Amino acid sequence: MKKIHNKWLKGGLLGLLAIFGVASCSDDHFDLNTTNASGTLWQNLVATNQVDSFTMILEKTIVNKKSYGIPATITYKNLLNSSRVFTVWAPKNGTYNAAHWLKLLAAGDNETVEKQFVRNHIANFNYNGAYATSERIRLYNAKYAVYDVPDNTFKGVPISSDALYKNIASTNGTLHVLNGMAPYLPSLRESLQDNANVSDINQYIIDKDTLEFIKNWSTPGSTVNGEIQYVDSYFVESNKILPSIAMNEDSLSAAIYPSNTAWNEAISKISPFFNYKQKYSYYDADANKYRVDSINPDSLQEMYTKKVIFNNMFYSLREQPAFNIQTATPESVQQFFNTSDSLVSTNYYFSDYNYHQHKPYCNVLTEGKLPATSSNGYAFITDHFNFIANKTWQNDIVLDAEYFWYLNKEKSKYIALSSPSGISHYVSDGNRNDSVKGNVHGYVYQEFPSTSSSARPIVSFNLPGVLSGTYDIYVVIVPENMVDKSNLSPKKNKFNATLEYDYDVNGKASSITSPNTFESDPTKVDTILLFENFKFPYCYANLANSYPVLSLATVMSIADRKTVTPTLNIDCFILKGKDE
User: Fold this and answer.
1) Total domain count for the chain?
2) DSSP 394-426
3) CA-CA distance, 265 to 245, in Å (whole number)?
4) Are 430 and 514 within one domain?
5) What is the predicted pLDDT for the residue at 233?
6) Are 305 and 388 in a shared domain?
7) Domain's final residue, options 347, 371, 392
8) The three-state (H, E, C) secondary structure of 492-539, written as one string
């Protein structure tokens, strides 16, 4: 999540006011009509009865975003008394708890008062009520509000119809008087604040906030005491873990937040799948020796564990095919999550089926709760972490054999020198042999021809993305006549399988070899289970150089040559996650 902030740091009051400047708008809708205007917004606020509580708050509230390090020297009295153009909706005395906001200011909580109250009643540009329209406008705190002129309401709050308080023209905007305080709704991110039940996740998010000064985008001014003073400073506000929809007021999303109990459950449930060790060895073919990568296993385990939680936390309602955003309510969102056939989290918009939540698991994720409404969506807070491993983060791994960059050339043997990475065959309706049952994944398979008719090829592949979890491991073998209709008597394959894992610093691996020899069925695309319920002791996902290695070794006697081919035609390898 990133936001860019442009701060004009010039001397004096005008420079500070310009910090909060925006481009002028030439649309007639926003144009000032100063013919009947008398005084600035601030002067008219002071002169208007029944809003002195509001003016007292404005006079004490500092125009500030302290996290950006901007000098805090002006108040909203100064801002509304300047030439900047605003519209102000001022709540009448006695229609809200003004003492609450004054108490917060006295306690030094300027930020809350500014964002939730003051800026919630101010908008850039001039909305003078001259046009009988209902508009969705952006407020000074980046929230959105409906200003309904025909209905004479602002954020659903009635605007005073008394001629003394309605559409008060000013030299720098328009003042409206409200019969109540405009309601403030927190964003999905803000909804976590001041909620002790989700304090763990809230603190983790806060710890990921960053603010970076972009020197190349900033305009330097004079040099004081050897340091450049920037008159135009750009800052990029980021959060390393949150997607933009958590803060973007234009979004409409649902969040599944874990309570503190659920947060700890999630960590306990996910972290065993990211059980890294400190040293991983790998073969460096260029140097013809084994090398060792050293990592911080605890750091990686924590990072990827919490990444899983956040990857499945936010759901843009605009991206859910079966959801009608036009009629979104807490009840409709609740029903959608309870009955949906499929849910797509923000992190997996463009991914395949594997990474989506599917029926019947969708309805357990939110525990049937009614979500709380936020300014940009709906927030569930769950008592438990209800995501299932092999339906969420232990996704099935499908490794196509044409991905030759995963071919382990150091361990592969007796493959024809003319095609050491194999030969790709593309299957189409025009060339496929219809007598062969089944389909090839991605319409491509890889042929690994042997060096001779008597050779016994070994084909070895590095397995990417393997977690420290339990898998069923398969290979899909393609008949040799898949694209050769003239071959009426295809030969089968016979082979053993060996899985190597947990290499030590000298390159020696723990390994397991299939007790039986496998035979493929030459009449079909044959999916063969090599190892059942195999648990990898260590995680290999997200590592640059180290992998478990799966090898198929052809088994063929002289007597087999009539019915067995040494050439291996491999569609893909499949590792199916088994953990729940």
Assistant:
1) 3
2) S--EEEETT-GGGB-TTT-BSB-TT-TT-EEEE
3) 25
4) yes
5) 62
6) yes
7) 392
8) ECEEEEEEEECCCCCCCCEEEECCCCEECCCCECEEEEEEEEEECCCC
Q: Cβ of 439: how many Cβ atoms within 10 Å? A: 11
* Amino acid at residue number 571: D
User: What mean pLDDT value characterizes the chain?
Assistant: 87
- Provide the token pair at 252: 């409409």
- CA distances to 246, 381, 500, 529, 542 from 467, in Å: 29, 28, 15, 19, 10
Query: Are the C-beta atoms of residues 535 and 523 closer than 8 Å to each other?
Result: no
Tell me the C-alpha distance between 81 and 464, whole Å.
63
8 A C-beta contact, residue 251 and residue 316: yes
Per the structure block, which two tokens stand in for 134?
């209902």
Please give the Cα distance from 296 to 280 (Å, whole number).
11
Quick one: DSSP state of residue 75? Answer: B
Nearest to 477 by CA among 542, 562, 401: 401
283: enclosing H helix or E strand: strand 279-284
Q: Which residue has the tokens 């979890």?
A: 469
Summarised one tens digit per residue, pLDDT across range 98-120 is 999 999 999 999 989 999 999 99
Residues ≥6 apart with Cβ < 8 Å to 438: 524, 525, 526
Strands 279-284, 289-294: pairing kind: antiparallel
Please state the pTM of the whole predicted model: 0.82
- Residue 207's φ and ψ, nearest 5 degrees, are -65, -20
Select from 178, 209, 236 the last residue of a domain: 178
518: pLDDT strictly greater than 50: yes
**Statement: residue 274 has pLDDT above 80:** yes
Which residue from 288, 209, 217, 272 is spatially nearest to 242, judged by alpha carbons?
Answer: 209
For residue 315, the cross-strand partners are 254
Q: What is the pLDDT of residues 19-33, one digit of tens each?
A: 344 434 444 445 555
Q: Which of 318, 373, 331, 316 is CA-nearest to residue 188?
A: 373
Which residues contact residue 293 at a Cβ distance below 8 angstroms, ignoring those fewer than 6 apart?
279, 280, 281, 282, 543, 544, 545, 546
Please answer whether residues 512 and 498 qualify as being in contact, where contact means their C-beta atoms are separated by less than 8 angstroms: yes
Q: How big is the CA angle at 259 (ends 255 and 261), to the nearest 5 degrees?
A: 145
Whether 383 and 526 share a structural domain:
no
Half-sphere exposure of 358 (CA within 13 A, CB side): 9
Torsion sign (Cα): 103, 108, 112, 113: positive
When pLDDT is averaged across residues 287-297 and rounded to a whole number, the result is 90
- Residue 63: name the closest of 13, 1, 99 by CA: 13
For residue 15, the enclosing domain spans: 2-178
Judge whether 260 lies within some domain.
no
Q: Mind listing the pLDDT tens digit for each residue in 366-412?
A: 999 999 999 999 999 999 999 999 999 999 999 999 999 999 999 99
CA triplet 414, 418, 423: central angle to 5 degrees? 90
301 falls within a domain: yes
Tens-digit pLDDT profile for residues 124-144? 999 988 878 889 999 998 899
- Least confident piece of the model among 245-254, 494-503, 508-517: 245-254
Count CB neighbours of 382 within 10 A. Answer: 21
